[in-house]
Fold each of these.
Amino acid sequence: MQHKVIDTKDVVIRFAGDSGDGMQLTGSLFADMSAIYGNGLSTFPDYPAEIRAPKGTVSGVSGFQVHIGTDKVTTPGDFCDLLVAMNPAALKANAKWCKRNAMILVDDSAFDEANMKKAGFTTDNPFLELGVEDRTLIVAPITELTQESLKDSGMDQKSIVKCKNMFTLGMACYIYSRPLEHIYQYLERKFSKKHPEVIAPNKKVLNDGFNYAANIQAIPNTYAVEPSGNVKKGIYRNITGNQAAAWGLLAASEKSGLPLFCGSYPITPATAILEELAIHKSLGAKTLQAEDEIAGICTAIGAAFAGNLAVTTTSGPGLSLKSEALGLAVMTELPLVVVDVQRAGPSTGIPTKTEQTDLNQALYGRNGECPMPVIASHSPAHCFDAAFQAAKIALEHMTPVMLLSEGFLGNGSEPWCIPSMSDYPEIKPPYAKTPEDGSRFHPFERNPETMVRSWAVPGQKGLEHRVGGLEKNHNGVLSTDPANHALMVEERAKKVALIANSIPELEVMGPQSGKLLVVGWGGTYGHLYTACQEMKEEGTEVSYAHFDYINPLPKNTEEVFSKFEKILVCELNSGQFANYLRGEFPQFNFIKFGKVQGQPFLVSELMDAFKKEL
């Protein structure tokens, strides 16, 4: 059989195995290598919800999907071109994601009777049982080959078996014409100081996997995904959404000249933001792992009062616990960024799966009339800009700001062009000035154009004042006067509404008027954008508007909506944004298209929804 190298526009690879099989590392290395190579990429780590599910069971399967392309890639892909399944459970859980012409690479060493039974197979032919026998099957004894490769390495048997993911990675690199140098460099960086003895064995098994794939007849063709070079010039790196959010907050700290304080309690999938900020003490970041969610936000509010850029991070259940303190932050009108990396709920829900089901909680989840700006990030790289803007709004408008991310964004990654900080605006908080005439400072007097109060950092003579949860008047004096309460409620709401003057207007991609406008928010951006592009390639242009700013909405939202007959709102919940828009603009025809499965949209199901409405 003559071997062919086929040039292709993009490929999707899904690595799957037990939690201990190293599939997250394998996928991450493949993604990082592709980013350095110059490919566009998008990743989707798919963790099991259980802390340690029984080994070999479907519930314990951990997956990592990588989509690489010649140009920019905006989704991890609906279905995969190559499925790597390290055991029968991984095959059973992921076979449904294979394309009709996909390759399936399995570790034959793991397909024994016991593992087949654990995975729930009832026959001795899993491929036939799953209906994938017509795919290109690569059945390789990966565990045994790894043991043979490292038999003279001096490593113990358990450590040798753990290297099978590197053998698999070598095979994948051969199939998709990936260079191995980046992985060699990673191994040297990671292990050179503490465990230099494992560098050579890992390099060897990686290379052996590459060579094994090159010498078996089961792989008839290999594929090349060459970068087109049609990208913005600059220095790129692969970045996750949580890492980007942390760096965006650090950038805001630099541009405001304020130290950053993050008080948080660890919670999936937001913990990585706290961990990333803790690394950067040299940049003035202070982090506190609090004993609970309430303590986390309360320490952040205290830091805001003391003059810091204050941050707290959480996910849905933690946001519920923070609700009373959020009301305190609104009442005291102190700058605070609350990052909610959403996950499937309610309650504990499915902690490792993604959803957009916290929108109602972000908009309304506090007692009293308690308005708060809400913005959303739309891709892993955009988490940097979204975090920066959240901090800028909080500091310049003296308000807590909710930044909504999602597990899909926080754990996912894409190439990010490292920006120059000179391209980002200065952040200018409205600091209070001591009254020159010796009069008393009035902490809740406002700028009439923005309704923003001034920020009096403690320790300044003449600016002494008190804040707290009780209602006050403009002078900062406790007040139960009905008219004053109505006035302060109105002013706090007006302050948030006026933020619309400092955010971008809503843009429409595609025709500016017509029968259907597709609307999305948050992490649905990549799938909706790709679905619209594929519709265009089929000959049907679809108008698309994406919301990064949710409260307040862009000023031209009503004008945009007025030009379309129907508005299809696509979101990973049961219609929360659609209901919000209907409440703001009841004159328009909103149609809901939701998904609540703990998984992102598929481009194919979005296209079906568009065609139904057209």
Amino acid sequence: MKKCFSIMIILLLFLMLYIPINAISFTPHYRIVKLGNLLLIVPDYMELEGLIKLQHRGYLPSRMGGLDCFKVNYLDNVRFLFKYIKPQPLTTLIDVLKDVGVVDVREKYGLTGRGVVVGIVDTGVDFSIPSLGLDKIARDESGKPLLLDTDMLGFVITDFNVEEVNGFLQVRDKEFYVYFPLGYVGKIKLHRDWIAPPIKSLSGKYKFGLFVQVALQSNLWLDAELSVAYFAPVVLVDSKKPGVYDTVFVDLSTTWYTLKNFLYAIGYIDTPANPRLFDFSFKDEKPLRYGDEIAYIDENNDGYPEFSIGVISGYVYDVFGLIGKEKPLYEIIEKRAWEPAGTGIYPGLDPKGRYVDFFYDPIGHGTSVASIIAGKKVSYRMFYYRGNIRYLKLVETEGIAPNAKIAAATGLYVGSVITAQLWLSGYNYVYPWNWTYTGKPRVDIISNSWGLIDWDTLYAYGIKRFAPGKDPISNYEDKIVSSGVLIVHAAGNSGPGYGTVLIGGSSSEAITVGATTIFQREIRSWDYGLLIPKGTKGEVVSWSSRGPTLEGTIKPNIVAPGAYALVPIPALGGVGNGEYAVDVFGGTSMATPIVSGASALIIEELRKEGKTWNPKLVKEALYFSSED
């Protein structure tokens, strides 16, 4: 009796302290190390021997309005709605297509964005999800993805020669330098050998490294938030010519085994990982090459990956000086538009085998933006409540221009958004921060679902601030639009006051987008009754930033639905089941890609008619086809 009573007391303590019951009996094969605000999962087969910080600016642009205000003004409200009062399902992207007239345009003109390339500057994109996929990636003439890792977020050091003996790569008891985002290098010692990949190295020298991937994922419907980093073993192979490395293998199964068990231990999934995944093997992994470069794991083979490493980047900007011989420059000077000067822009897969870079989305914001612009028609699963009863529901999603291609660049983490936009618009980089125009843009449209509240870099260094519209970002965006690339920019989520349009959105030549309501379905809760009536839409949301700019420019130029809709998120956001990788999204971050997708349809039609288009013509077409 006393024993039963003791067990009950322990269980009650776990419930009171919100400790998952799984943690009582589960024995993990890893340990947790605190790395800033991240939990670093260090498997037992390795030893972290040290960590040093590389020289860089020493700060991050922490007040990015498109992300920071999105979290404050939007997520807190939605958490209240969804976690505490358990409403019914929200508007879907299919509802949005009907509301903004895309369905009618498709039926009448057959427009889907075919032949149009939309560039996204954001947190990254997870192309592994069924809403996107390999065929969504825009490519250059050489076949490389038009994906630039401006922040070195997915950089992997592989400059270590490893030999194969009896089918095993000899890495046991060897030390490897490992790059940690953003701007750290550590030393790792391994305690296991790895089964070699099925493709032989022609030189006999395999290039081995460890990729540190970060996941800052959240799913409000599943009440899950992640802030973790973990290791993925990587090997490069010269399969066609000795010394020229063209193929990448990632041990996804061993990586997923560790990460899935972590999710089980903290109570996010119900079953631990299958021990067969823990195989220390490249032999069963897919060879990654340009043209087929997405690395993901789909345990059920249902077309909904549970986990993705990302895509081999087409290009990487060496902002931390790990590739080029030159020294990166971080001084805050006007000549470089107050951005860091990397040593150069290099291929994402180094032919010499010194490194490989993966393009992925640690947060999920950019993936949702890409899905709104060009997502395929896909059904996801979600649950909702009526009273205390939980129901499952299929959620259909589709983008505005589902046949458009996506190019993308990061830039929000280190603060290189001008670098990202110049590259997408057809400029080539020359150290130190000089640009030459190639004569041809890489994209037709740049979609920016972000903005800055303050120019923190200048404030930190004691230099006067810029008024929105006279800041470097706005000036460069004006220049880019004049070269023939349409820029669609979020106004920001800092309303309702006048003059609250953010830096970036205050560009006089960009199309600046505000957010409106779109509630196609009523929202009820079992204890609060009717919250929002069905059909409440078309009202400018209180938090949507208003103009004019301090220069007197009328902003925003146009508004679109931004409150709210269910949108695809990265595979890991499904927390062990990719079918649940859908979540509520909103803000001017949502309204902006809707306008970007609509612009792609207009460009497609102008090209069909044999007309030469320009940003001004597209802007006018949007104005005259909108409701006042």
